[in-house]
Structure prediction request, 394 residues.
Amino acid sequence: MRRCLLALLSLPLILAAQNQPLINHKRMTNLFLQLVHIDSGNENEAEICQFVAERLKELNPEELFIDDASKKIGGTGGNVFARFKGTVNGKPVMLSAHLDTVAPTKGIKVILTETEIKTDRTTILGADDKAGVALIFEAIRTLRERNLPHPPIEVVFTIREEKGLLGAKVFDKSKLKARYGIIVDGSGEPSDLIIGSPTHFRFEAIFYGKAAHAGVEPEKGINAIAMASDAIAAMNWGRIDEDTTANVGTIEGGQAMNIVPDRCKVIGEFRSHDPQKVEGLVAKWKQVCEQVALKFGSKVDLKVEKTFDAIRLSPEEPIVKAAMKAIESLGLKPKLKRMGGGTDGNVFAAHGIQCLVLPTGGENYHSTDEKLVLANFYAVGEILVRTIVELAKH
Prediction:
């Protein structure tokens, strides 16, 4: 206890040294470079899961395992979990990032300059989210090496995030004791704190018509594409309001220009930071599809799935206050933001863990122009460490 009190008393002096970085830039960069050379862009996370598990073992966790997520969602590998003791009592904080990337990553050729890391543009880089993984490792190492006060830590490195947060969805949440979580998987400036993301619904509507010769007897057919068009025209799409978006993503239908199409599949989504608004859109879409099917004297098969629930963090939550203080300690001004996409944090939030999303320092995700801006990467590392230290006070 005396040791913990001394650490807390010395905290203002430690964090006041803004020009003296807490984290080890070279070590964090080297780990990131190791990670990006492990191909994990095609549901093949087994190698990177084993790699991070071995690195976690070196840090002497209380508990460590790789789960059997791949048996449930396909591919290889599993979610990696580790638990570390804290220097103060209290609920653990969860740190999470995902191990998979979008493709292509095989045969990656990295270009390292004084200011950034990028590729030769034949592949993506994979900073989304291997930069997040490296940041979490460095935070844990720094906290322990510098004997900084911190609560217990639960680490969850997930698989198959890019396919729809699948790894997080099948992870056994009963393993988690955390009340707060930090998801290191955002974009933007280091001072951006993402406290909101939307509820998301995916839909698939199949309109069934009746085939006929388009030139000889079109009146005997029912045009499924026309059905789908009527339904789409009855809805608003794009930016509905400041909270809400809607999109038709793909349309498939028809066999040839001279055949009345008997089937048309429409896939799309609805998102909103206000759950009631998005549920209202879903209800309206169901009604529109049914009315169109009735009008054409045919039928529609509509499937709607909630992909994830919204994150809605109050600025008064201790996790947000801690991150704001961490940013201010670096002489920066924190900016509270909402994002239009989802992260694993949406899954964990549904299980009672208040999740804050931090950026990674990466830019141009999911493209061959992706890069990691080193100054931002290092700044987020400082913010992550200082946020955890601030949480030790609560």
User: Anything to note?
Assistant: The radius of gyration is 24 Å. The first strand starts at residue 63 and ends at 66. The first helix runs from residue 2 to 16.
